[in-house]
Write a structure and sequence with these properties.
This protein has about 240 residues and is α/β, with parallel strands linked by helices. Helices cover about 30% and strands about 20% of the residues. Helix 5 links the parallel strand 5 and strand 6. The mean pLDDT is about 95.
């Protein structure tokens, strides 16, 4: 079997969220990241590679470097592209430390936050329905395989936060200094949109705000990047 026009059409279509959800498939590129997905519970649909080392797979198709360039979203394709099936979302249990995202738009930020969850041992990441799709190719690439170890659910965030029994904290510039607190080990940490922060609808139902103090004198820095802020806050919650 070789790369066909139908394969090309399918892979190209998966750059759009509506087709990823229609076909229940997403794209993974690069030897290291693909191998992480192969070693996980994710189910492989088909794999294209310039290397025969993947030929043990039933769904392997060997392609030329030129063919790989045609189906890759990277400037420099990395030997292998695979399509994996999007799994059914699992219900989250409100326990331990949970990160919730309120309308995160940037794929790179989401990918980095997924990696941070993996690093800090957080296995539940909740996303508002306005948050970028975690199976966006840029999210998958920037998460570097951590997507295989962090359960992600897209939910009605306001509804969830009103029903959860553990403490909820929202990151806000006007919040209490995180360094002067002793955060609980079981809680929900809500991070907001890159431009607008936490939405008003969430602020209305969550009263506990936390912030990272600014020590520099410059007034030009309005806020931290959301992924950077997530890293600092998670480090304090785990400390």
């Amino acid at each position: 079997m070789s790369l066909s026009k139908n394969h090309l059409k399918l892979i190209t279509s998966l750059s759009q969220k509506k087709y990823r959800h229609k076909y229940k498939l997403f794209v993974v590129e690069g030897v290291k990241v693909v191998q992480e997905f192969l070693n996980s519970s994710y189910e492989l649909e088909i794999l294209f590679s310039t290397e025969s080392s993947f030929s043990y797979l039933d769904s392997f198709i060997e392609v030329s470097e030129q063919e790989l360039k045609k189906i890759s979203s990277l400037k420099t394709p990395n030997k292998v592209i695979a399509l994996f099936k999007i799994p059914v979302e699992k219900n989250s249990s409100p326990s331990g430390l949970i990160v919730a995202l309120d309308a995160i738009n940037d794929p790179g930020n989401l990918g980095t936050i997924i990696r941070l969850c993996d690093w800090f041992g957080i296995d539940q990441l909740l996303c508002s329905k306005e948050t970028v799709d975690c199976y966006n190719t840029k999210v998958v690439q920037s998460s570097m395989g951590s997507l295989t170890r962090v359960a992600i659910s897209y939910i009605d965030l306001k509804e969830y936060l009103t029903s959860v029994s553990i403490p909820v904290f929202i990151a806000d510039m006007d919040g209490d200094n995180i360094y002067e607190m002793k955060p609980p080990t079981s809680a929900v940490l809500v991070m907001g949109n890159e431009a607008n922060g936490i939405s008003n609808s969430i602020k209305q139902i969550v009263s506990t705000k936390i912030s990272i103090p600014r020590y520099g004198n410059s007034q030009l820095i309005e806020s931290l990047n959301v992924a950077t802020a997530t890293a600092i806050l998670l480090s304090e919650f785990r400390r």
